[in-house]
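Worked example

This section walks through a single chain of length 488. The input is the sequence exactly as stored; nothing has been trimmed or padded.
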Amino acid sequence: MTYYLKYRPQSLKELDGVDAREALTKTVQSGKIPHAFLFLGPKGTGKTSAARILAKIINCESTSLKLRGHGKAEPCNKCDQCKSITKGINIDVIEIDAASHRGIDDVRMLRDAVKLSPSSAKKKVYIIDEAHMLTTEASNALLKTLEEPPDHVVFILATTNPEKLIETIRSRTTEILFAKPSVVEIIRSLEKVVRGEKIKIPKESLGIIAKASKGSFRDAVKILEQLVSEKVSLKADNVADFLFKSRSLGVDPFLAILAEKDARKAIVEVEKTVASGGEVEDFIEMVLERLKSALLAAVGVGKEGLDGFDKEGLIELSELLFHALGDSALSPVEQLPLEIAIVKWCSIPKNPSKVKANIDDDKWRDILTKIRPINTSIEALLRAAKPMCFDGQVLTLSVYYRFHKERLEEAHHRRVLEDVIAGVLGNPVRVVCTLTEPPPKAIGTQPVNKQEVPSLAPKEGVLTPSDGVLTEGGDKDIIKIAEEIFGQ
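Given that input, the structure is written out below as tokens.
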């Protein structure tokens, strides 16, 4: 039996997540079990294990009667009900994967099934994993059951993306948060396995495993088992080499190279890491974690500062690497997005405040002209915008419609816009959009859903000749945008 199954929690007190454990314990001890729960949190945080434990508590032959008062909040794990639920063979505890049973027909079958009384248990328990994957029609059908559930049924919905659930379903459930665990909590979870298996491993190595698990108790245990099964030395250096294969590219030394804006050296180190079998995504995440600590220190929270970076630099580099992380999964060359981010970062002058630049009307028209053949939608959106201020590094655009602003802020559109502007100005630029009142000459009617904000006064570096829209447009441009976006 694998470590994860062997050491899977079988009672509330064994749950690794402190907040979820305490919330469930209080609920059970109250003697009033809600008819529907929503377990929400990242993968590997114990949601399914907790659901099975709760199913045992509800149906345990030794404790179920005590739930009417302030009785025992744990299953006995000895009666037939508890044993069958642990083995996954209890016919009254039904686990459904919403990712593969997400349609209206699946939920209709579920609605018919819940009407039937339990076969041998006190209550039927439906555990619906990844509930956010249900279609809108299926969600609405499930909602009807949640609104008027039979007395003999308890629903436990689990999800990693609660924001994708319709709000009416969330309002009908009791939410239990399974927060992303800290490194300390994951180490504590690993120590239970280490003691049970009598494994000799330094605590420093457990910390490395915990960081590599990306906030998942389950993944941490799987990593430990992999190290043991492959007979890897459990010393910290060997564990780090095995997991990250990035010994030639430590995080702090790499950031020191970036602080010096040495693109060639940084890219050489990335190539070395890839050649040695290192995972680019893992390394980017490690760098982002370090930048997060440095940024917190820069605003007075924590003490892990980083030489060579000011607060603005930490934000800029973090944003570049964040986008590189998202792009790396789609790139045919895994390290290419990281290397692009490195080149962009190293192209930014060390002292950007000394490189003020003005975007006059001609430059703005040049930008629009170059964008049009690349993406006509972006060019049309920019007709209802104008440069507001530019400090040599960040260009703030004044945008007159909420819809236009949201479209321009989409990752693809923003990336195209930034690339074109960088080509015109000769250095990397980050674009920030601000919703403002349109000048009277820009439009003839009031925009729909326009956010009520006061007009912003000009700032240092603002365009002097541009009080209105540089490239006028009419209703036909808005129609053009809609046609291109929605394919009409």
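What to look for: The chain has a mean pLDDT of 82.
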